[in-house]
Amino acid sequence: MSIYTIGDLHLSLGVEKPMDVFGGRWQNYMDKLREGLSVLTQDDMLVLCGDTSWGMTLRQALPDFQFLSSLPCRKLLVKGNHDYWWETAKKITAFWQSNDCRRLALLHNNAHFYDGIALCGTRGWFCQEDRDAHSEKIFKRELQRLEFSLRQAAENGAEEIYCFLHYPPIHAGQQCREILEILHRYPVTRCYYGHLHGQAGAQADEGRRNGIEYRLVSSDHLHFRPLRIG
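Above: the chain's sequence. Below: its structure in token form.
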């Protein structure tokens, strides 16, 4: 029984948007992903930190969901900025059920427990101070979702919490102070995030900060192998 995480799979089995065009580590990335994900067993948990599929709709993303469903483990999906297929939780869950997509669940306005560890998270938002009115509204909603997820874990007796975000809460000398303040109000010991690629990924802020371990888990940063975290 192990917990793994990885982000930014950018699957495109249902649309013509393969990441191979970027070359480098992305060349033949689906073959690398299949090999990397082959370590998973039915007793494991895999948390996906956003940007899972390039599909613009649930229907377009279905081949990607079927690919994930073929993995024997349980899967939790966090929303990313490129997950345009994302609908309400009710619609997504119903679509998965009607298409026999097994062992998929959302990490969104909730908390999951695995082997005594609470798994919480949300998409998050950019590390920036100058937000317009529209961005501010989205940002505040993300703060509410993060607080709700962590509170659920705490109210159910969690003594250790792993938090999963899509956007990095710290990067390039900037901090998303509001998100960090929420993380420190709860027993969060680890925070995993995606979104960063290439040179930005090489400059990611990783390591322990004020009692929380931060780690970038974008798929190319991990060489397309899920990171075992528990």
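Residues 51 and 82 are 5 Å apart (CA to CA).
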